[in-house]
């Protein structure tokens, strides 16, 4: 009974310290909260760019099926443009090509006309690629700087821990755990913000390169179509039906086995 009373009295006299995220951030003070707020903004911006750019890329990939099929089955580029969705990357290339085709008549040299059309399509491609690449520099910046922002919080936390040790005169756990915990949490948050940003940047950049190649091929096909007056068209996705024999002309009979072509059969 006496031992239990002494133990209860010791528990009441011992300091009750609670350690957690909020307590660690409070130990860091306004600087820790400011650094945490910056990294939250970085993380939200990274995921916003990831989602919006993915939706833009998926839309372009889905519209490519119309380019491979209905567009090239039409009789002219103007008619084919009506088969494409408005305000799309593919429609922009076709519209710019038609505009350049109308303006190239002012060129006195055929070579200059070809260069003008090629340059117009190149500018259109560059504008589309620049729009798709918008926001990717932010992802690269977050991936490169977020670990260092977290490291800044780590340095501040370690500094506060050393100050607490110096003021207390002893390295007791209750004086050191708070600032050190805040320092470690900042490092972890910096990595959690940087890693998704780097992965998103690499993934979106790879998809942009694929789209850029598709746009370049489509521009080449349009240029060839215009310069050949519609004679040169790329192969479409539609399966081609086999050629039929002319009506009224039966198919030629195959020579019998063992009979040479052109030789007369023996009586």
From TrEMBL:
Membrane topology: Multi-pass membrane protein
Region (Disordered): 246-267
One Gene Ontology cellular component annotation held by this UniProt entry: plasma membrane
Pfam families reported for this sequence: MotA_ExbB (PF01618)
This protein's UniProt keywords: Cell inner membrane, Cell membrane, Membrane, Protein transport, Transmembrane, Transmembrane helix, Transport
Domain of life where this protein originates: Bacteria
InterPro entries, alphabetized: ExbB/TolQ_transport, MotA_ExbB_proton_chnl
TM stretches of this protein: 31-51, 138-163, 183-204
Domain MotA/TolQ/ExbB proton channel intervals: 109-212
Location within or outside the cell: Cell inner membrane; Membrane
Function as written in the Swiss-Prot or TrEMBL entry: Involved in the TonB-dependent energy-dependent transport of various receptor-bound substrates. Protects ExbD from proteolytic degradation and functionally stabilizes TonB.
Complexes and interactors: The accessory proteins ExbB and ExbD seem to form a complex with TonB.
Family of this protein: Belongs to the exbB/tolQ family.
Protein name as catalogued: Biopolymer transport protein ExbB
Organism: Pontixanthobacter aquaemixtae
């Amino acid at each position: 009974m006496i031992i239990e009373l002494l133990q209860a009295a010791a528990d009441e006299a011992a300091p009750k310290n609670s350690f957690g995220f909020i307590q660690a951030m409070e130990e860091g003070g306004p600087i820790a909260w400011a650094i945490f707020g910056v990294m939250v903004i970085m993380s939200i911006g990274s995921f916003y760019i990831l989602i919006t750019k993915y939706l833009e890329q998926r839309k372009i990939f889905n519209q490519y099926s119309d380019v491979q099929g209905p567009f090239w089955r039409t009789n002219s580029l103007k008619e084919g443009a009506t088969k494409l969705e408005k305000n799309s990357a593919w429609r922009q290339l076709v519209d710019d090509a038609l505009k350049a085709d109308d303006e190239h008549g002012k060129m006195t040299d055929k070579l200059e006309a070809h260069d003008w059309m090629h340059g117009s399509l190149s500018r259109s491609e560059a504008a589309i690629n620049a729009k798709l690449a918008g926001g990717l520099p932010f992802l690269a910046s977050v991936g490169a700087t977020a670990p260092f922002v977290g490291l800044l919080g780590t340095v501040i936390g370690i500094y506060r821990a050393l100050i607490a040790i110096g003021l207390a005169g002893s390295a007791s756990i209750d004086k050191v755990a708070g600032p050190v915990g805040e320092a470690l949490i900042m490092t972890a948050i910096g990595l959690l913000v940087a890693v998704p940003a780097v992965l998103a940047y690499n993934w979106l950049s790879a998809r942009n390169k694929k789209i850029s190649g598709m746009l370049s091929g489509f521009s080449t096909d349009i240029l060839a179509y215009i310069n050949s007056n519609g004679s040169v068209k790329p192969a479409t996705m539609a399966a081609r039906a086999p050629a039929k024999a002319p009506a009224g002309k039966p198919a030629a009979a195959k020579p019998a086995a063992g009979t040479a072509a052109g030789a007369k059969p023996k009586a």
